[in-house]
Amino acid sequence: MITHTLTHETLETLCSQSPVATIVIDPDKRIRLLNPAAEKALGLPPLTAVGRSLSDYETLRPIAEHLDTTPNGPGVQSATLKLRADTEIPLQIVVSLDTSTAALSQVELVEQLVHDLKRPAAVAKSLADMVQETGSLNQDQLAWLDRARRKLLTMSSTINEVIDTFWMEVSGQLLWQQTDLVPIVQRLVREASDLAQMNGITLETELPENGCPALVDATRIQGAISNLINNAVKYSPNGGVVRISLQDEGDRITFQVSDQGIGIPAEELERIFEPGYRVRSKETERIEGTGIGLTIVRAVVDKHGGKVFVHSTPGQGSTFGFTLPRKP
User: Fold this and answer.
1) Alpha carbons 308 and 118: distance in angstroms, whole number
2) Bridge partners, residue 263, by sequence
3) Model-level pTM?
4) What is the pLDDT of residues 41-52, one digit of tens each?
5) Which of 286, 280, 212, 283 is CA-nearest to residue 244?
6) Cα–Cα nearest to 18, from 37, 42, 31, 3
7) What is the β-pairing status of strands 87-95 and 21-25?
8) How open is the CA angle 105-292-6, to the nearest 5 degrees?
9) How many CB atoms lie within 10 A of CB 50?
């Protein structure tokens, strides 16, 4: 696949994984991107198709005509394209803008595309869980099943990081809403329980009994909390305990996660929030990750007017967290 702008690199990554034929166009109906499914179904060579108008291709003219009668702002539209009398293919048309005024729409667009990737990953995870319930498995089969489940959990986490990274680079805007953080933390702890169980980790929570309302962007705060919980689980030893707490302190809110993991040397604490930076040691070689999670956490918290903090002792564990003002 070929794209013409840096912004579309994220779209290219997402669309390339979609089984649905997808064409990304600009508002003038010029082709900006073809995913592999579209290339195969339509027989269009990307080297010559990118930059051309939909109307330049006879098979795509019905799509261009359809778009002439519908709103042509940024977003995703589904259509059915008739190639021959007996052949129809489902087609996804993505109208994309590169201007800063469309930044928020771009983020929403990516989130729609990513949702299509998260769904099959979640279904595959559920099927893997069901395999173990259908009957006894030998040790080799259990080991392979465990690896598959871990990879699917990693895939889901990476997909979320793609969304948040795109948000940081393109928009950084917040959608403020009054939100109770307690149900969010409870749900994310449940979601992390699978990985915790596979790693022999116990999750403990301390949450306000009467809720913890705050004016936040619920989606972004959820991503920050999820990153901290998942990191603690990944970096904890088998048999360890991860403690998750949320405290309502009147004019501010404090969230923190403490683990009993490998800890972080003092000289590296200042760098762990840099994009792509990961502590390198024999203990971390087995741990998968992009090194972008903590960067996302800091960006989200900064946007909310809060502060990130970390305390760590090598060999004893770490505590990561953040404080948020009750109102920004």
Assistant:
1) 28
2) none
3) 0.60
4) 888 876 778 888
5) 212
6) 37
7) parallel
8) 45
9) 18
